[in-house]
Design brief:
Clc chloride channel, mainly alpha, 2 domains, transmembrane helix, 0% strand, 441 residues
Length: 441
């Protein structure tokens, strides 16, 4: 090795160390913002539930107050987006992917307060949206600002941006490995040393910050599950195929609802975009009055499904309502993600499937465990059917539920859940959303 080669390797090592240090700063900042966002969402959910409970106590014109509150919150969220940061609408993940592909410039820092406040208003109003979309996009914006201030190269800023997005996902679901895998599998779609180091550093520091501020328990509390027997493989393949079909339908419904909403009220018009969100907010307000447990991101519904609560009929009815509410909420154009509502739908489908199997074939109970097994598997399979990121889905659900004994059933179900939408020629949801956004530019 000559002196030039040795100097080049030394420079590469120094650059890698600087990138790793920057990724730790990115993760810590993203973790802090993500936890604050989560605290704000928890308070907003508590206020919404308190308002509905107060209204049900018999106060005059109570239903009108609930509907007006949801309408005003959703409308304000959409107005903030349309007026100050149009790229803050929706999940934000398609925009992050477009930035990484150099199709659009990084979002300005004004996105962070708009995404934060708009997400709290929209999800707090009861829209069926997830917290991960805002934290992913805010993490990407934070990362770009830090990378620029650290005077990193354009390629390192790109890697940091992806790492910040992964840190946002990790913070949203208390899932550090899933955050790093999300960067490699979905955002960058490649594995190299610099990307891996940045992704791991950002996710690790984000979770360290989040756990200091919010605690270190898994998002969902699932009873301990034994390793399912090999004879259940066929059932998990069928469950995966069913969720693959439902996931394809959900993707199509989401895109169709967006097309209808934007044909009526294009996002380029601030007034129409605000009116569109107001109409969705009014519908959600009515739902919150009659069925408050169905409003919001869906974590409570997921928890209930994982605990096996509810009859087959009631869970099926809730699934049907949420299956429509999710795309309708996303069409409002407010900040909010897709993951949390999808996980709830997957858990509900798995619960119903497991109940039916155990009712029809009671002899399989020793091999399958209770219905919570199918609910956990359903979460991963529905995620994979819609997003088409199998490793991220499996790791995410495993970390969220601490169900390490169900890795093989999840892998089996995700296999068919991924194949069915491909056979139906339904592309991954973020690819479709990215193409729609590109056509508007």
């Amino acid at each position: 090795m000559n002196d030039n080669e040795a100097n080049l390797q030394d420079d590469e090592r120094a650059g890698l160390v600087a990138l790793a240090a920057a990724s730790v700063v990115v993760g810590a900042a993203t973790g802090a913002i993500g936890v604050l966002f989560r605290f704000a969402l928890e308070r907003a959910d508590a206020w919404r539930n308190a308002l509905v409970a107060w209204a049900h106590a018999g106060h005059d014109a109570s239903i009108i107050l609930v509907v007006l509150a949801a309408t005003a919150a959703a409308a304000l969220a959409a107005w903030l987006v349309a007026r100050f940061a149009p790229v803050a609408g929706g999940s934000g993940i398609p925009h992050v992917e477009a930035v990484l592909h150099a199709s659009v410039p990084p979002a300005p820092l004004v996105l962070i307060p708009i995404k934060f406040v708009g997400g709290v208003l929209a999800i707090g109003a009861g829209l069926a949206l997830g917290r991960e979309g805002p934290t992913v996009q805010m993490g990407a914006s934070i990362a770009h600002a830090i990378g620029t201030s650290f005077r990193r190269s354009a390629s390192d800023c790109r890697v940091l941006l992806a790492a910040g997005a992964g840190a946002g996902l990790a913070t949203a679901f208390n899932a550090p490995i899933a955050g790093a895998v999300f960067v490699l599998e979905e955002l960058m779609r490649r594995f190299d040393t610099r990307t891996a180091v940045a992704a791991l550093g950002a996710s690790a520091s984000a979770i360290a910050m989040a756990r200091v501020l919010h605690g270190d328990l898994p998002d969902f509390h699932v009873p301990a599950q034994a390793f399912p027997g090999f004879e259940t493989t066929g059932l998990h393949l069928v469950l995966g195929a069913l969720l693959g079909l439902l996931g394809a339908m959900y993707s199509r419904l989401t895109l169709w609802t967006l097309d209808i909403a934007e044909s009526i009220a294009p996002p380029s018009s601030v007034k129409r975009a605000t009116a569109r969100a107001a109409m969705v907010g009014a519908a959600v307000g009515l739902l919150a009055w009659f069925a408050p447990q169905l409003a919001g991101g869906g974590d409570a519904l997921t928890e209930r499904a994982l605990l096996g609560a509810g009859t087959i009929a009631s869970v099926t009815a809730m699934f049907a309502l949420r299956f429509v509410l999710g795309p309708l909420s996303y069409a409002a154009g407010t900040p909010g993600g897709l993951f949390a509502p999808m996980l709830a739908l997957g858990a509900q489908t798995g619960l119903v499937f497991g109940r039916v199997c155990l009712d029809w074939f009671p002899g399989i109970a020793p091999a399958t465990g209770d219905s919570a097994t199918f609910a956990v598997v359903g979460m991963a399979a529905f995620f994979v059917a819609v997003v088409r990121a199998p490793v991220t889905g499996i790791v995410l659900v495993t970390e969220m539920t601490a169900s390490f004994t169900l890795l093989l059933p999840m892998l089996t179900a995700c296999f068919t859940a991924m194949i069915v939408p491909m056979l139906l020629r339904v592309p991954p949801i973020y690819d479709s959303l990215g193409e729609r956004a590109a056509k508007r530019r």
